[in-house]
């Protein structure tokens, strides 16, 4: 009998690679004054793995597109390319985990960082209305 695959076995090598990168950040003196660094890195790793759809250790344009749509902030291809360029410094068309963590821990305010920070807050404060939409008549239309 075959077990259903939840991606766990495929993700094990990637998890190990990202954990190694996290250790590098933990040992980096540039980030020694960062509060709760270990916890932040664990969250970043989970988020990154969630959107690294091909488990190759990089987030491509379509993955960023899906991430933004899932967060309720869809972007055009041009906006997505600009975000990736901002994160990578324009040298790559995919976001590596090192780039991702550097942006998230960095002092500059990147679009991706802002979106990731506000993802949870937006989901909490904007509950989706349930039930059918309210009835409207012709006079109420703009």
Automatic annotation (TrEMBL):
This protein's source sits in the domain of life called: Eukaryota
Where in this protein does the record put region Disordered? 121-142
Instruction: Give the Gene3D superfamilies listed for this entry.
Output: EF-hand
Matches recorded under Pfam families: AIF-1
What GO cellular-component annotations does this UniProt entry give?
Answer: actin filament; ruffle membrane
Q: What coarse category fits the chief subcellular location reported for this protein?
A: membrane
Q: Name one GO molecular function term.
A: actin filament binding
**Which InterPro entries does the UniProt record give?**
AIF-1_EF_pair, AIF1/AIF1L, EF-hand-dom_pair, EF_hand_dom
Q: Which biological process annotations from GO are given for this protein? A: actin filament bundle assembly; ruffle assembly
Q: What topology does the record note for this protein and the membrane?
A: Peripheral membrane protein
This protein's UniProt keywords? Acetylation, Calcium, Cell membrane, Cell projection, Cytoplasm, Cytoskeleton, Membrane, Metal-binding, Phosphoprotein, Repeat
Its name, as the record gives it, is AIF1L factor
Tell me the gene name: Aif1l
